[in-house]
Amino acid sequence: MFLKFFQSENSSKLFFGKLKLFNLRLKSFDNLLNGMTNIETHPNAVITALTASEPEKILEKSVLLNTGQKFPLIGFGTYTIQGSKQIFDCIDWALGAGYRAIDTAAVYGNEEDIGKSLRTLLPKYNLTRSDIFITSKLSPKDHGANKVYEAVMGSLSRLGVTYIDLYLIHWPGASGVPMDSKENKKLRTESWKGLEDLHKSGQLRAIGVSNYTVRHLEELLKTCTVKPAVNQVEFSIHYRQSVDLFKLCDSEGIILQSYTSLGGNSHSESLLKDPVVEKVAESLKVTPAQVLLRWVLQKGYTIIPKSLHKERIEQNCQLDFDLNSARMKALNNITTRMKYAWNPDTIV
Ligand SMILES: NC(=O)c1ccc[n+]([C@@H]2O[C@H](COP(=O)([O-])OP(=O)(O)OC[C@H]3O[C@@H](n4cnc5c(N)ncnc54)[C@H](OP(=O)(O)O)[C@@H]3O)[C@@H](O)[C@H]2O)c1
Asked: Which protein family is it in (predicted)?
């Protein structure tokens, strides 16, 4: 039912609103969990950037995309932040705290308010457009050769910018197309071609995907002329991606970015109140949210936490501490498995 909802034409309003939890207490995941421990001994580009001695402050650290652009390790997530006042305040606090990357999407319905807020706020912080890394995403309703160009023009116009730093295919399936239909594959291949053209003409500095599984990525890598720069996926202590996805992205130079690492709007309590997370937080005199986010970074994913509150926005980017191997081990060994966001596994 949930996936049907995402395939429907009018899904954007209720985007993420009716999420079903998928309790993934699968044996194979415990195997993956063990495999993931090994990743720490094989650092990817994000881990290498995170552990580099220069620059010293985490907010200034970035990883290089396959385009050569600097991609900040920490960005500000904006899903469900809406209305001109709320957007303005949150962007104000985020820029004030030091965030220099903002994650939005056509379906979030906030591109226009983000664009307006940036035009007012950049001078306040002595910044210009080029100091800010903006990510937006193609709506599932705009998949296909006939729609992608207009969709990107819409994002550019709503944001009021001449280029977008990174544009992602939000979801491998198209609205209104059954998830088991091969039409999804045809449409997303066309969408990628459209994004490649807009990348080549300079409106999209980098292009990438979101919610792509190994299967979706391997298919894209066979036909693309521009490789995706980023794959943005759900990743948290309770929902871990496979080692195969990590290895594929690493070997193809695709940066992994994590979302819903605090559990999203409805379920952050279960992650933040995890007793192991609380214990590690207490031992370091940081908050559970900071532990959850730092763990994601040390796993090799960039992060885009969202909050409506000034003190949390500030806290979520103050991650200049290290989780040593004993603490990482304790966190890795948490066995709860919950999926908090939509599941792309069955999209053909
Ligand atoms: N590509 C995709 O399909 C996709 C899907 C989902 C999200 N995203 C992107 O990823 C971003 C982050 O994911 P998300 O929005 O699902 O949520 P999230 O970052 O996992 O967490 C947000 C929740 O945690 C709370 N929170 C934030 N900081 C906190 C802190 N320091 N202490 C306690 N609670 C805290 C927030 O509440 P308050 O707001 O009340 O503080 C909110 O309920 C999104 O905003 C969006 O940009 C992408």
From this structure: Belongs to the aldo/keto reductase family.
Q: Which of 79, 99, 108, 239 is catalytic?
A: 108
Domain that holds residue 84: 2-339
In whole angstroms, what is the distance from residue 73 CA to residue 302 CA? 5
Residue 348 belongs to some domain of the structure: no
Q: Where residue 197 sits, what CATH number does that domain have? A: 3.20.20.100
pTM: 0.91
Spatial separation of the C-alpha atoms in residues 143 and 22, rounded to whole Å: 27
More confident site: 39 or 206: 206
| Residue 15, pLDDT score | 38
Count the domains in the chain. Answer: 1
The closest residue, in CA terms, to atom 36 on ligand 1 is: 307
Positive or negative, the Cα torsion across 315, 318, 319, 321? Answer: negative
Indicate if 99 belongs to the active site: no
Within-domain flag for 346 = no
- pLDDT digit string (tens) for 162-186? 999 999 999 999 999 999 999 999 9
Matching residue, tokens 């490789």: 227
**How remote is the CA of residue 145 from the centroid of ligand 1, in Å?**
32
Lining residues, ligand 1, CB within 6 Å: 77-79, 103, 170, 210-211, 232, 259-265, 268, 272, 287, 289, 304-309, 312, 315-316, 341
**Ligand 1 atom nearest 305 alpha carbon:** 19
Q: What residue ranges in 89-199 does DSSP mark as E strands?
A: 101-103, 133-138, 164-169
**Residue 140 counted as domain residue:** yes
CA 265 – ligand 1 centroid, Å: 6
DSSP string, 236-274: -SSS---HHHHHHHHHHTPEEEEE-TT-HHHHHHHHHT-
Tell me the average pLDDT of the chain. Answer: 90
